[in-house]
């Protein structure tokens, strides 16, 4: 992917963007450093993973006796467990030194905990009630959610891995 530096120099750098859909919502499956090239396609060496979690914390649905609502609760429970398992695996990879760096900005994270928030931070409240009903997103929602994700990512990089910013400059 081409990147333009501030001094006008253009450089090429490989960037992998994935989306895992419903099952692998964090999109981590194609990035795991322990994938076997004998059985997996497109295996590349990955030493840094930055994945954005779009959730806003645990759901607290009221109990119900109706089957459709109970099935919806089961689906959410299984989805959350799969996402939590992927998150744990990500940090286990760090502990085992199979990854150099990993960051997980979360759109629902508490803004007051940001060490380096930008002045124009899109707040948690500005994005938290996006309806996840698989309808097409409006330009406004795309802008708000993607801008918040980028802002949180930059703030976390600055806080935890500033060498990545220095490397990109």
How would you sum up this structure, described in words?
With 169 residues, the chain is mainly alpha-helical. Helix content is 37%, strand content 7%. The strands form two sheets. A two-stranded antiparallel ribbon has the order 1-2. The chain has a two-stranded parallel ribbon with strand order 3-4. The chain starts with a strand and ends with a helix.
Features:
two-stranded parallel sheet; 169 residues; mainly alpha; 4 strands
Q: In what order do the strands lie side by side in the largest sheet?
A: 1-2
Structural class category: mainly alpha
**Strand runs, count:** 4
What gap, in angstroms, lies between the N and C termini?
16 Å
- Helix percent band: 25-40%
Query: Largest sheet, described in full?
Result: 2 strands, antiparallel
Into which percentage range does the β-strand content fall? Answer: 5-15%
Structural Rg: 18 Å
Q: Which residues sit in consecutive blocks of at least 5 with pLDDT less than 50? A: none
Number of helices: 4
Mean pLDDT: 84
What is the helix/strand order?
A: EEEHEHHH
Secondary-structure blueprint of this entry?
Layout: E1 2-4, E2 10-12, E3 48-50, H1 67-95, E4 101-103, H2 124-127, H3 139-160, H4 162-168
Helix pairs in contact: 3-4
